[in-house]
Amino acid sequence: MPFIDVDGVQIFVQEWGNSNAKPVVFLHGWPFSHRIFEYQMRQLAEDGFRSVGIDLRGFGASEKPWQGNDYDTWASDVKAVLHSLSLQDVTLVGFSMGGAIATYFAAHHDSDRRVSRLVLLGAAVPSSAPTPELRQAKEDAIKSLLADQAAFDEGFIKKAFHAAPSPQLLQFLVNIGTSASSRGSVRGLEELRDRDLRAEMESVAIPTLICHGVFDQVVPFHLAEIQLGAIKGSRLVRFENSGHAMMYEERDMLAGELARFADPLSEATFKCATCGATFPSETTLDEHVRAMHVDLVRQ
Fold first, then answer.
1. Catalytic option among 96, 127, 179, 242
2. Which fold has domain 3-267?
3. Nearest by Cα to 56 from 40, 38, 39, 79
């Protein structure tokens, strides 16, 4: 199995595609592993990219030490993986807690500018618990997790979907969730409870794509709008049929958005047949066409 040693801790890394191609690096959310991205990783590899999925320490197939389960160490591990694989011009994709870690990485750990583009998917940024009520909810979640990790993970996963997943997919995801150590799982919830990344978010200075499910009950959609306002030059894509689990509920759309964003040369590929304007995605083209239709009707 492909492991990278980071100060004595074995970090699992899954690579697909051409090792000389443009890299897209995936950071999973709590309490999962890189496997939640397998569809997008495979599709991007088939489209000519180098897909790299990292299991954070404490999660998935990576080692599960007692120490170092926090945003700074997870971001430091990401830096070590990028250096070990000699990755440059990276598109860094972070989902949920992984989005918080990716934002933290961009602000504190990328001094040699290996990451050129950032993608936030249902990202827990700037904060997952901005009110006393939400902070208490995180504390209650920790108690429930310690009482019955499998039951808690199952409830969390059900909440992540807008449309109920199949029993088989639910079990698959529960299995991934329960593969995380209880230490890593609790520390992840504590970091989500305690961290506010407003300053880090506002310091991001690379092109950023924000993808967010309209029906997200885990990280509400209004947080994506806050991200859009705080990150200069960012772009928001609404996933109209998704909750938190857009990588399953609108998997083709997500793969397409990632491919177009990761390769600047392919961004402007959708052309309006009426006026000739080009757009970076079918979504933005459709919005343009609808707006144009309204203008024509008014005229």
1. 96
2. Rossmann fold (3.40.50)
3. 79
